[in-house]
Every structure is written in structure tokens, then in C-alpha cells.
Design goal:
With 424 residues, the chain is of the alpha/beta class. It folds into two domains: 248 residues, Alpha/Beta hydrolase fold, catalytic domain (Rossmann fold, 3-Layer(aba) Sandwich); 159 residues, Endonuclease Chain A (Endonuclease, Chain A). 33% of the residues lie in helices and 19% in strands. It contains 14 helices and 17 strands. An eight-stranded mixed sheet has the order 10-16-15-14-11-12-13-17, with helices on both faces. Strands 1-3-2-4-5-8-9 form a seven-stranded mixed sheet, sandwiched between helices. Strands 6-7 form a two-stranded parallel sheet. Helix 3 crosses helix 4, helix 4 packs across helix 7 and helix 11 runs parallel beside helix 12. The chain starts with 5 loop residues before the first strand and ends in an 8-residue tail after the last helix.
Length: 424
């Protein structure tokens, strides 16, 4: 019977997962020490499940037997392992249910992650393109992006051979990554058709196996943590830099189910907007954040097929929202059916007795609903984040219903006629 190659800590209903991938000679249970369990002890990461994923890497007698045809097992190459990781992340029983993935690699595991991403970018029809949309960040611990100096004997191991700095694998991987991935795009927009995938590198202060230059390479987000090559990925407690770096990057890249704090709510709204590709629906009359409204405008420009619903509940409460509606009409015309359908719907539901004001922001896969604040009257500091398809569709139907039963404001004149009702 095949050996298990992963374990998952599942905490019910989470849309985010942290995926740990070990390195050469590593093991999915042993490489990370207490790291996965430290994640479960931090309440700010309760929205994340954990997947520790592994692959054959330690040479055993049965692998050596593969020198004889039809006898023993073959040791998989890095490319084989990358393909297997792709398949498992699209497997409903392992990683398919998650909308947000943070991929964490140690040493060779980082190269496996990079190889999987490059393969998905170069052959989207042969892999599941949705996987790329779910990768929020990559964190690399002691990964030799520019290879390592290996003794000749070690090159007999097919995976170790790919680690060597004088081998084509590492050099080609670096070139392809640079050509296809933009880690820090200017103004949040990748250039030259590249894919935006943020990467964080953690270098071991006492690492004698992977040099700092090889780990850092051309990456921009670089941290240093205490420990040697094997210790840097085994934080002993949550105060250790290796843990704090991952925690910080996870919180910046994923959205918790319950969001607290005005800044966190607005950040989540902007993330939902920037991830919208098929539809974007917004309800509420109090929007005034320039970055949020600007993100909506940019997304409509970037995705001409994107269907947008914008429904006010009563008149706008800020002049900047009225100006935003006028900008939307400059970007899109409700009368334009060149895509075969109407791509922008703007309206106002004025009966606040029948439907008190609500605040929604959603796309095809997620929605944020503002809740009564836990911090004070009139504040917008608490929200719930949903990814369940039925809930997302229900809130989309509610937004459409408000639009259909309200007054259309889809001309410049109808928007200009709106009176701004400033908050008392």
C-alpha cells in the first residue's frame, strides 16, 4: 500500500490554506518541527488550514533497485514532484476547496513550488488555470534559487542534481521565473504580460548549505532568521522570526472570516475588487475611500468583460461617491452591448424602510458584508467574509434585486441630479 504523503489540519469552513513543502531528504511531518502547530495556536491565523505535503526524496534500497528494469521504485525528478503538487492542490480531497493558498517551501521545496508555477503559466491548458488565481503568496526558507555547490557523488540523486548551480535546471528556472513572474509590480499592475506573485525569502543566519546570495537571488522581500539550514524552518516558538515572517505575510495575503478594524475592512474590500474577473457587485451609499473607489475604476478598465453592479441604498452620502459614479459612466456605457450583454448596472434603492442600508462588496468567488461595529456607533470596523458559493450567489441575487426594484441611474444627467446627503 502506498505511504501517505501529506497531512492536513482542517478547522472547518476555512477558505485559506498554508501549504508546507519540504526539501531534499526531508519529510512532510519531520521537516517543519512544531511550525504547523504554532500556526494553529495563533488566533489571528484561525482562518487558515494547514497542509504539510511530501514526496519521495530519501534514497532507499528499493530506489537503487530501479537501476534494474521493472524492479523497485523510480526516484521522481523535481519536475515530476512539481506536477504531483499541482495535481494534489487541484484534488478535492487535498487542496481544491481553498480560494487562498500560501505556498511555503524549504530548500528544494521552494524550487518545486517555482517549477509548478512556471509550468502552470507556460501550459495553462494542461493544468488547472484556477490554481494560479488561488496562489496569494510564496514564502521560501533557505531555498537555493541560484543553486548550490554539490559533491559529484550527490549528483547521482536526480533531485540533488537539479540543485547544483552548474546544472541547467536551476539556471533555466531562474530565467523563466524572471520572464513570467512580477513579484513587485509598479502601481500593483504586472508589466509585460507577467503574473503577479509576491515572494518572500527567509535566509538562515547560520546556513552553511545555501549561501545568502543564492537564497536572496533577485528577490526583493528578504528576511533573515536565526538558525542553520534545517533549523530556520523549525521555529521553536511564535516569537521566532521565521514564524513572525510567515504570519505577517499570510495576514497580508489572505482574508479572515471575521475582519476587525477599519483599515482591515478596507484592505479586504480592495482585495475583492482586484480579484474580480467575471463580476463585481457593490451595495451601499457611504463609500469615500479613494483607493477603494479607484481600484474599482481600474478593474473595470483592466477587464472589459467584467460585469459590474453598483447599487446605492438611498442617496450618496459623500460627493466623492457621486464623482465615482460619473467616472464609471466614462469607463463604461450601459447602452454598450458589444460584448453581447450589458456590462454595467447602476441604480438606487430609495426605500430605506423596506431595506435599511447594507454594505456589500463581492466578486465571483467571495463577498464581504459589513456587520454592526464592535468598536463604536457609526464606525465601519467589522465585517464577515464569505466564500461559500451559495452565500456569494445569494448576496449577488440580493444586489440584483435591489437594482431591478430601484431607480436606474445610468446616464450622466441622472447621476448629476442626485443630491448628496451628507452624514449628520
Amino acid at each position: 500500500m502506498p505511504e501517505s504523503h501529506f497531512y492536513r489540519i482542517k478547522r472547518g469552513g476555512n477558505q485559506a490554506a498554508i501549504v508546507f513543502v519540504h526539501g531534499l531528504f526531508g519529510h512532510y511531518r519531520q521537516t517543519w518541527g512544531e511550525f504547523p502547530f504554532l500556526v494553529t495556536q495563533d488566533t489571528s491565523l484561525n482562518h487558515c488550514d494547514i497542509i504539510c505535503w511530501g514526496y519521495p526524496s530519501k534514497l532507499r534500497v528499493r530506489h537503487l533497485c530501479s537501476l534494474m528494469p521493472f524492479v523497485g521504485d523510480r526516484m521522481p525528478t523535481v519536475t515530476d514532484v512539481a506536477n504531483a503538487l499541482n495535481s494534489d492542490l487541484n484534488n478535492p480531497e487535498i487542496g481544491c476547496d481553498y480560494t487562498d493558498l500560501v505556498l511555503v517551501g524549504h530548500s528544494l521545496g521552494g524550487l518545486v513550488i517555482k517549477k509548478m508555477i512556471i509550468a502552470a503559466l507556460q501550459n495553462p491548458t494542461q493544468t488547472n488555470p484556477d490554481l494560479l488565481n488561488r496562489i496569494r503568496r510564496v514564502v521560501l526558507y533557505a531555498t537555493p534559487s541560484e543553486g548550490v555547490q554539490l559533491p559529484i557523488l550527490c549528483k547521482a540523486h536526480p533531485q540533488a542534481k537539479d540543485l547544483a548551480c552548474d546544472e541547467n535546471f536551476v539556471n533555466q528556472l531562474q530565467t523563466k521565473w524572471s520572464d513570467c513572474v512580477d513579484e513587485v509590480p509598479p502601481n500593483g499592475t504586472p508589466t509585460g504580460g507577467k503574473r503577479y506573485i509576491p515572494v518572500t525569502v527567509v535566509v538562515g543566519l547560520e546556513d552553511n548549505a545555501v549561501t545568502r546570495d543564492s537564497a536572496k537571488s533577485f528577490h526583493h522581500d528578504v528576511e533573515t532568521a536565526s538558525g542553520n539550514h534545517t533549523e530556520v524552518c523549525k521555529p521553536p516558538d511564535r516569537d521566532h522570526t521565521s514564524f513572525q515572517v510567515l504570519k505577517d505575510r499570510v495576514l497580508k495575503s489572505t482574508v479572515p472570516r471575521l475582519i476587525c478594524g477599519a483599515g482591515a475592512v478596507m484592505t479586504a474590500n480592495i482585495q475583492i475588487v482586484q480579484r474580480a474577473a467575471d463580476r463585481l457587485f457593490v451595495a451601499g451609499s457611504r463609500s469615500r475611500d479613494e483607493k477603494y473607489l479607484g481600484a474599482i475604476e481600474e478593474q473595470l478598465k483592466k477587464h472589459p468583460d467584467l460585469i459590474h453592479y453598483r447599487v446605492l441604498i438611498g442617496p450618496p452620502r459623500h460627493a466623492i461617491l457621486k464623482d465615482h459614479l460619473l467616472k464609471l459612466l466614462q469607463i463604461r456605457s450601459p447602452d454598450d452591448l458589444s460584448k453581447g450583454y450589458k456590462t454595467i448596472h447602476m441604480g438606487m434603492f430609495a426605500n430605506e424602510y423596506l431595506q435599511p442600508e447594507i454594505f456589500l462588496c463581492g466578486n465571483e468567488s467571495s463577498v464581504l458584508a459589513v456587520l454592526p461595529p464592535m468598536t463604536g456607533i457609526g464606525e465601519f470596523t467589522t465585517a464577515a467574509f464569505f466564500t461559500d458559493p451559495e452565500l456569494v450567489d445569494s448576496y449577488l441575487r440580493l444586489t440584483k434585486d435591489l437594482y431591478n426594484k430601484g431607480r436606474k441611474i445610468e446616464t450622466v444627467d441622472s447621476v448629476k441630479e442626485l443630491s448628496v446627503k451628507e452624514n449628520p
